[in-house]
Amino acid sequence: MLVGTYLLYAAVMVAVHPRIIYPFGADAFENPAFRQEVVSPRDVSIAISEGEDDLAVLFFMGNGGSLAYFTYSLNAHQEAGRTVAALEYRGGAGIEGRPSEQGLKADALAAYDWLAAQHDGPIAVHGFSLGTGLAIHVAARRDVAAILLDAPYTTLCALMTKGSYLPACYLPFVQKWRSLDDVPALSAPVLVQHGTADQLIPIAYGMDLADAMNAADLSVTFHGVEGASHNNLAGQAGYQDRINAFLSEITKE
After folding, report:
1. For the Dienelactone hydrolase domain, which residue ranges apply (predicted)?
2. 77 located within any domain
C-alpha cells in the first residue's frame, strides 16, 4: 500500500509540477522607459529600453513571471546607460501562452537573435533564478560577451528532488532545467551573485555551478552576498557596483 501511495504521489507531482515551477504573476509591466516588441514567428514578447552604451544586456527574470517584480535588476543596467532587453514569459503578466522549459528556451534564443539584429555592439546575458538557465542556454549557443547569474542552480530538478522527495531528475515528463549540461559549451566570462541566506536556491548550488565552470576553464567571479535572501538579492548594497565593475573589465578587453 505504501508503494502504491508513493507511486500515486509521484504521478500527481509529475502532472502538476509545471504549476509549481511557473507560478507566474499577472501584474503587467508598465514602465515608460521601455517599449514593448513582439518579434519572430514565435510571437516572442520583449520589453526594451535603449541606452547609449555599446554593450546591450538581454535579461531573463525569475519565475515571478512578470518584469514588474524585477525593477532592481533592470535599473542596474538602465542607470549605467546600457540597452536592456527583457524577455516576457508566456503565461505571465498578461502574455498569452503556456510556459515550458522547451518553449522558454526557444523564446530566449529568438529574443537574442532579434536583439543581435537590432544592436551592433556586444551582448551580455543576465539571468535571475529560473532565468539563469535561460542565460546559460543562450550563452552556450550564441555569441555573448558576458554571463551574469543571480542565484543560479546546477539543475532545477535537483531542487525539485529536495522539495518533493522524488527522484525528479530521473522521472519522465519532468522539465529538468540542467544548466550543468551547457557548461562545456560556454566561453564568456561569468559573474555569479548569490545570497548567503537564500533558502529557495541555497548558495551551495551557485557554488557548485561556479566550480563546474572553473573546471571547464571559464573565467568566473563569484560573490556571496552576506545576509541576502533569494528575493532581495538585487536590492542589496553593492549589487549594481559589482555588475558595473565586472562589465567594465570585460569591455576593456
Report:
1. 103-233
2. yes
For residue 72, count other CB atoms closer than 10 A to its CB.
Answer: 16
Residue 210 sits in a domain whose CATH number is: 3.40.50.1820
Task: Specify the residue for cell string 567571479.
Answer: 221
| Residue whose C-alpha cell is 535572501 | 229
CA-CA distance, 30 to 84, in Å (whole number)?
Answer: 15
Q: Kindly state whether residue 118 falls inside one of the protein's structural domains.
A: yes
**DSSP symbol at 232:** T
30 in a domain, yes or no? no
Helical axes 101-118 vs 130-139, angle rounded to 10°? 60
The per-residue pLDDT string of the chain (253 residues; one tens digit each, 9 = 90 and over) reads: 777 888 888 889 999 999 999 999 999 999 999 999 999 888 999 999 999 999 999 999 999 999 999 999 999 999 999 999 999 999 999 899 999 999 999 999 999 999 999 999 999 999 999 999 999 999 999 999 999 999 999 999 999 998 888 999 999 999 999 999 999 999 999 999 999 999 999 999 999 999 999 999 999 999 999 999 999 999 999 999 999 999 998 876 6
Domain tally, the chain = 1
The residue among 35, 75, 89, 229 whose CA lies nearest residue 150 is: 229
**Structural domain contains residue 164:** yes
- String of b and e for 36-55 (b: at least 16 CB within 10 Å)? ebebeeeebbbbbbbbebeb
Query: Helices in the chain by DSSP H: which ranges?
Result: 2-21, 71-78, 101-118, 130-139, 156-164, 203-215, 239-252
